[in-house]
Amino acid sequence: MSLKALKGIHHVSAITANARKNYEFYTQTLGMRLVKKTINQDDPSVYHLFYADERGNPGTDLTFFDIPNAGQSYPGTNSITATSLRVPTDESLEYWKERFGQFGVEHDEINQRNGRATLAFRDFEGQRLILVSDENNVGVRGGRPWDKSPVPQEYGIRGLGAVQLTVSRFDPTAKVLTEVLGFREKGKYPSPTNGTHNIYVFETGEGGTGAEVHLEERSDLPPERQGRGSVHHVAFRVEDGEELSQWAAKLKELRIPNTGVVERYYFKSLYFREPNGILFELATDGPGFEVDEPFEHLGESLALPPYFEDQRAQIEAMLKPLNTKQRF
């Protein structure tokens, strides 16, 4: 079955154990906009927070499930080991390095990865993040930082860059990326953490950092144990529901177990695991986050899809109050 190429990264979803500190870090330290405060639709007792550009354009969302009792994560293989965030220029990284120093954010030095200037850092729970400069980037366009952000727009985060997968067996994951999802192998570069290993670059659609997966094989590490500070899954972009249904049919034809199309209200989704166990999602570009809130007030109140509205009282009683109108 022939399908259109995936358009790039749609969103990345991670785990936090502290919604308030998470909100403070991603909006005030990183300057992203909270565009939706909603629930994990598979567990309504848990917040699902979406941070993005000014309106949550596809490819800009870094999201978090708030699981207060989440244990410590133990990094390893068969996991998403780094999420990159795009900034406009190499000069932006100098701004961010100084800002991280002011805010006490743990960070590395600026260095080159795959021909781009980058700055790796960790959030307060050890979430592994990398700022990547768009100065020499071509391909999928970035978003537009919110003009009310505490970070100046000329340095602001424009969306998601490449995700890094670390696996115990390279070939099965590479085969799913290329033969199932239609990615192209583009090149490789030395691992910044272990120079004896290469990281291989796969791209889809228009290419560029917003449409890349970086894949590393490590047989010397144990499997990762997920917890606070780890990534739950990565989602890739498809145009609409019709296209997503075609992907569901293709996976069925290939006998790849999957959820089929799932209604998420702000987009439609489909989930499956690649052979090393990493959870992949395909998600539609629309309808987006303004279906139930105006642009000016995105993320300020608890938003529930219509099919959860009759449970609002019970859901609000389970959730710890989180004031997302306040400024820190």
UniProtKB/TrEMBL annotation:
**Key word Transcription present in the record?**
no
Q: Which residues form the VOC domain?
A: 8-134, 159-285
Superkingdom assignment: Bacteria
What stretch or stretches form a coiled coil here?
Answer: none
InterPro entries assigned: Extradiol_RC_dioxygenase, Glyas_Bleomycin-R_OHBP_Dase, Glyas_Fos-R_dOase_dom, VOC_core
Q: Which residues cross the membrane?
A: none
The protein's UniProt keywords, in alphabetical order, are: Dioxygenase, Oxidoreductase
- Provide any one GO MF term from the record: dioxygenase activity
Looking up Pfam families in the UniProt record yields: Glyoxalase
Check the record and name the Gene3D superfamilies matching this protein.
Answer: 2,3-Dihydroxybiphenyl 1,2-Dioxygenase, domain 1
Protein's name according to its UniProt entry: Ring-cleaving dioxygenase
Q: Which organism is it from?
A: Caldalkalibacillus thermarum (strain TA2.A1)
